[in-house]
Amino acid sequence: MRFRPILLACALVLVAACHHEPLMNAGSKVTTGGTIAGNVTTEDQRVPLAGRKVTAVDVSTGAKFDATTGASGGYTIQVPKGRYRLEVELQRAEAIAKHPDEVTVTNSDLDPHRDFVVTVRR
Fold first, then answer.
1. Whose CB has fewer CB within 10 Å in the chain, the N or C terminal residue?
2. Residue among 49, 57, 48 at smallest CA distance from 25
């Protein structure tokens, strides 16, 4: 079956427009490895924190890979093989109530449920 280039381009645009979760930083190229995923919420886990920068830091090299949480508070970051520490951007008067442990990623790994819980300090 032959696709016309314009139809293929339109299909790609529609797929990208319908994607509701954030993707990794477009400036980062990952050729092999896996995906780290999770959510950022408040202590009331029904309240997602959208627009938060989540960073995966390779503990050996210091290389950083980041994503921004979507409307659901979810994030996904594609990373090369390695061991990663995860960080989340906090706003004034916020603290981390729950922080995911370091994670080791190998080829084709999907490490889900790397969740953060954020609380407001009083």
1. N
2. 57
Residues paired with 77 in a beta bridge = 36
d(CA 57, CA 84): 5
Query: Is residue 104 in a domain?
Result: yes
Q: Is 34 in contact with 106 (CB distance < 8 Å)?
A: yes
- Among candidates 46, 53, 57, which has minimal Cα distance to 90? 53
Chain centroid, CA 120 distance in Å: 22
**Parallel, antiparallel or unpaired: strands 53-58 and 64-68:** antiparallel
Q: What would the pLDDT profile of 78-95 be if each residue is shown by its tens digit?
A: 999 999 999 999 999 999
Rounded CA-CA distance 84/96 in Å is 18
Cβ distance 117 to 43 under 8 Å?
yes
Number of domains the chain contains: 1
How much is the pTM? Answer: 0.72
Whether residue 34 is contained in a domain is answered as yes
